Every structure is written in structure tokens, then in C-alpha cells.
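Researcher: Go.
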Amino acid sequence: MMTPPLFSSTLAPMFERYVNLKRSLGRRFATATWTLQSLDRFLRDHAGIYKDLTQTAFQDWCQTYERVSSGVRRMRMLEVQKFCAYRRRTEPTCFLPNRTSFPPHN
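Model: Structure:
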């Protein structure tokens, strides 16, 4: 039985490279992977609106987590910010969230 792919949006190859890198460094990376999968599903489900991860797409994805505490929301946003920083190494003009706009850690 084949396992489904971890990612399926247009950013799937980049998400997979990032997760594989972290795991190759000895990290389980389970929680961060779950967060990136959530973003991936959001981008896939809204592919007609967002062709890439942009400020607007990021803000709209963040709004799906309004029900969770600000600390949890901040951690998820930081995981995406780390992914975007990784992506910037090969795509210098890609979106990078500004940490100063993240909610406080509680």
C-alpha cells in the first residue's frame, strides 16, 4: 500500500526538500511538518486564488488559527517563517513573513 504524499500544493517540492533536510539532520520534525502540511493544504485548496505563498495568503492561512492561543499561533507562524527563510536561499524574491507582526508568546 502506498502512502499518500506529504505535500500536494505548487510548493510541494520545496516543502519536501525542507522537511527532508531537517530530518536528515536528526530531527523528528513532526510538529513542524504538520504545520507545513496545513499551509500546503490551504494553498492547494485555494490554488485558484493564490499561485504562491504571499503576504495575503499567509495572513489568510493565519486567520484559520484564530481559535488557538496566541503562543501556538506564533509558533506555527515561526515555523512558516523558517521555511520561507530556507526558500529564500534559492529564491531571493520569495515572500518572507515579518516576525514583528506575529502575536506575542504567551
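Model: Residues 12-23+30-97 form one domain.
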